[in-house]
Inverse folding.
């Protein structure tokens, strides 16, 4: 707990003075005011994060955190648990969706075994950081010991810190892999929001109506059995979370401590980010939400965070795919701030509109 408290104490809000200076420049550029819409908002936020009017986000890295869930035995997913390890292998080979999209935007992908149930071969080109071989079944009791939740948070933060210090990464992305992980993610939303699981639960990998109703009941049971305190984010994570969700939250804490932006993917990555922001509200200043997931609970997460997603493409894959796509928008926003001349610089008459 001491290490987590030290991490939390390193996080400060983004610099509002630099953000205001960015808005002044954006409003002075040779175009109608506000004409680039939300790209201007992104640019101003980057200025506040990096404390400069010349923000740079060229070096991009996505962490795809992987973990398994004991609740999979309840039949809440259309896929068996062994698919988690099989997909990790696909990521490592470079032939999955996240690999293709990340390559397109010039981002590297690093896959992290945070808690996959299978023993993954040491020669696989992934980061072997397994905390435990999957969580316990949240329908029967807590997902993990409290110290494991702390380890997961610190793991995500350490990965970001090391990449920032050793490689100068300027923009991080977070994604996930874990069969059944929409179930704990939805339980986290329900715990924090107080809304009934029936209003929050989606189809995940594509379950039918009967399986969806069963999934709702499983989440209701998990909440009744564990009774997570919504005012204690670490307790919520411990009782109904996951190892990859913990690492995803920790990645945001690490990014905030290092004063670098992080863009999260859909439901699962945003669940981790929500935990982080409940632990440290200032971490929200460093978070970008990549897209609005088709998973219905994601809308509640967005509402609770108060951060509008950059894209709405009907996606619900995970892996970090939404984060990869949004990286282009974040990068171009930095260039808007830096490279578009002001009226004074260009010698153009400013009409004030």
């Amino acid at each position: 707990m001491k290490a987590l408290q030290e991490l939390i104490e390193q996080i400060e809000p983004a610099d509002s003075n630099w953000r205001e200076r960015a808005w002044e420049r954006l409003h002075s550029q040779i175009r109608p005011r506000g004409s680039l819409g939300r790209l201007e908002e992104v640019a101003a936020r980057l200025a506040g994060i990096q404390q400069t009017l010349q923000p740079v986000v060229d070096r991009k890295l996505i962490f795809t955190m992987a973990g398994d869930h004991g609740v999979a035995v309840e039949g809440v997913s259309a896929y068996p648990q062994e698919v988690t390890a099989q997909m990790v292998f696909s990521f490592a080979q470079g032939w999955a969706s996240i690999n293709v999209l990340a390559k397109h935007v010039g981002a590297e992908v690093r896959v992290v075994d945070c808690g996959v149930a299978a023993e993954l071969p040491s020669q696989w080109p992934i980061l072997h950081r397994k905390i435990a071989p999957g969580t316990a079944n949240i329908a029967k009791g807590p997902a993990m010991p409290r110290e494991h939740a702390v380890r997961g948070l610190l793991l995500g933060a350490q990965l970001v810190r090391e990449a920032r210090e050793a490689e100068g990464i300027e923009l991080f992305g977070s994604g996930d892999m874990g069969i059944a992980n929409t179930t704990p993610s939805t339980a986290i939303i329900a715990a924090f929001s107080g809304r009934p699981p029936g209003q929050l639960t989606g189809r995940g990998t594509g379950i039918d109506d009967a399986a969806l109703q069963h999934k709702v009941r499983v989440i209701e049971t998990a909440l009744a059995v564990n009774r997570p305190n919504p005012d204690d984010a670490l307790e919520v994570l411990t009782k109904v979370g996951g190892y990859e969700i913990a690492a995803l939250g920790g990645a945001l804490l690490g990014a905030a401590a290092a004063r670098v932006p992080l863009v999260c993917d859909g439901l699962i990555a945003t669940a981790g980010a929500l935990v982080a922001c409940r632990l440290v509200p200032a971490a929200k200043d460093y978070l970008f939400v990549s897209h609005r997931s088709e998973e219905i609970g994601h809308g509640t997460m967005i509402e609770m965070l108060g951060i509008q997603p950059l894209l709405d493409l009907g996606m619900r894959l995970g892996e970090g795919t939404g984060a990869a796509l949004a990286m282009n928008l974040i990068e171009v926003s930095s260039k808007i701030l830096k490279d578009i001349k002001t009226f004074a610089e260009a010698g153009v008459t400013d009409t004030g509109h």
